Amino acid sequence: MKLPDGAHFSRRWRIHEIAYDFDLEDVWALPTPGGPDDFPRLLELFASFDPERDAGPAVRALFALRWAIGGLMGWDETSTGLRSRVPSLGDRLPDDLRDGASGPDLDNAPFESLYGTADEWAAEIANSTVHGVLHLGWVPDESGDGYRGQMAVLVKPNGRLGKAYMAGITPFRHLVVYPTMLRAIGAKWRAATPA
Predict the structure, then answer these.
(1) How many angstroms separate the CA atoms of 122 and 88, rounded?
(2) Residues near 7 by Cβ (< 8 Å), separated by ≥ 6?
(3) What is the pLDDT of residues 98-130, one digit of tens each?
(4) Which of 53, 111, 129, 131 has the smallest number of Cβ neighbours within 10 A?
(5) Cβ-contact 188, 45 below 8 angstroms
(6) Closest Cα partner for 42 from 145, 121, 143?
């Protein structure tokens, strides 16, 4: 379920001090009910989750189209990637986060893990269109009796191309990609939850 921006900004996440000049694109409640110590399970799920494999044919088709267009346009060339196009947000990490665990590496996504804490994790991506951050948090649920995951996407578009790109993909993200991915994540979470 899509959440208002306040669901992200009202929390004292460490990402606020690191990605202060990024725009918040989306905040989503994840269908991952659990207890106070289940955040590591969520990170394991994200580390193994492959949207192109796990989220169904519509998402697979949209990702294939994105990679094809990106290949033709040179958006994802190594020479325009994270380290060469923009400084990594890792350079902004305070010592306690830099020296701590970075969290999982995403085997099936072009993100690089930045940092992890007991209830927060962030990874970044950069290409010719945007410098982006995927942020996961573990928050009390609406009832106050349990917890669930919360996902935020932060971006810094790269000029006019990046702004046009983000505007062009927004309907697909909101209507197809995120709802389908969240259903798949919820199904994987339920399948792995002990009875």
Answers:
(1) 12
(2) 27, 29, 150
(3) 887 777 776 656 788 899 999 999 999 888 888
(4) 53
(5) yes
(6) 121
- Quote the pLDDT of residue 109: 65
Q: Which residue blocks in 21-99 are alpha helix, DSSP H?
A: 39-48, 51-54, 57-73, 82-85, 95-98
Distance of CA 34 to the CA centre of its chain: 20
Instruction: Say how far apart CA 42 and CA 171 lie, in whole Å.
Output: 26
Strand ordering across the sheet containing 23-29: 23-29, 147-157, 130-140, 120-126, 112-116
Show the domains of the chain with their CATH numbers.
6-190 (3.30.530)
Chain center to CA of 100: 20
